[in-house]
Design goal:
globular; two-stranded antiparallel sheet; twelve-stranded mixed β-sheet; 261 residues; L,D-transpeptidase catalytic domain-like; alpha+beta
Length: 261
């Protein structure tokens, strides 16, 4: 055992279920990156082999080599922390989106949810309700009106209210459901995204996603991070947003929505 025991005392006795738990908390894949001195860091084949055993449920203590544990810690340290500061609340009834910072209202924007109503079954084109989170963000640094197809840029720019055009534009916030009632959201490609049909914001005209103007979705994208909570409700905002309920939030209506101050 002494030949494979990690030098760091924090790993002493970390075998079996404890090690498997540590590894399951990280992405089980062998990373490869270029160092500044041009040397290449490659994880040993033992890492990949142990990962396969872990995924198969047959990980054995002797196979956990020091490199495997070191890589697990490396991956865990690189994980992006969840955004617990911000929360997004979307009212289907009001067709509005509220951005909260530590539960304080920051801004309210007009949106558009599904023309087919509410639901989460596949092929329904409906907007799901309930608690979700931002799973992926797409569109960093792209100009307003950038067209995306399958979350990839097409190279085209579409201006607001362009006649006959209705693509996904500017930014994508891909949602993952946290509840049984919205468990299909990620697989259904439910996004908060930009739309060129800004004239229809405030009306339910989408195919399941939550649409915003390009300027508004870029502002939202720049504020919220991965893991930020998104709540979609079939109720007025003033029933679920504390600042609107108790009247402590003063808001001014602007061309791009209602901005808290």
């Amino acid at each position: 055992m002494s030949g494979i025991e990690p030098q760091s005392t924090c790993f002493r006795g970390l075998w079996g279920a404890q090690a498997a738990s540590l590894l399951r908390s990280t992405a089980c894949r062998a990373p490869s990156e270029k160092r500044s001195d041009k040397s290449e860091f490659q994880v040993s084949s033992g890492f990949a082999a142990s990962c396969r055993e872990l995924q198969a449920g047959s990980l054995r203590s002797p196979t956990i080599v020091p490199a495997l544990l070191a890589c697990a810690l490396f991956l865990a340290s690189c994980a992006t922390p969840k955004d617990t500061q911000h929360r997004v609340v979307i009212s289907v009834k009001d067709q509005k989106l509220a951005l909260l910072d530590h539960e304080k209202l920051v801004a309210i924007y007009p949106v558009s949810t599904s023309k087919y109503g509410l639901g989460d079954w596949r092929g329904s084109y409906r907007t799901p309700l309930g608690e979700m989170e931002i799973a992926q963000k797409v569109g960093d640094g792209m100009p307003p009106g950038t067209v995306f197809k399958d979350r990839r840029r097409t190279g085209e720019i579409v201006l607001p209210n362009a006649v006959g055009r209705d693509p996904i534009v500017s930014r994508i916030l891909w949602l993952r459901g946290r509840e049984p009632q919205n468990a299909n959201s990620f697989g259904r490609d439910i996004y908060i995204h930009g739309t060129p049909e800004e004239r229809n914001l405030g009306l339910p005209v989408s195919y399941g996603c939550v649409r915003m103007s390009s300027n508004d979705v870029i502002k939202l994208y720049d504020v919220v991070g991965l893991g930020a909570q998104v709540t979609i409700v079939d109720a007025p905002l003033d029933k679920v947003v504390p600042d609107l309920v108790d009247g402590t939030q003063i808001a001014s209506t602007g061309r791009r929505g209602i901005m808290g101050r």
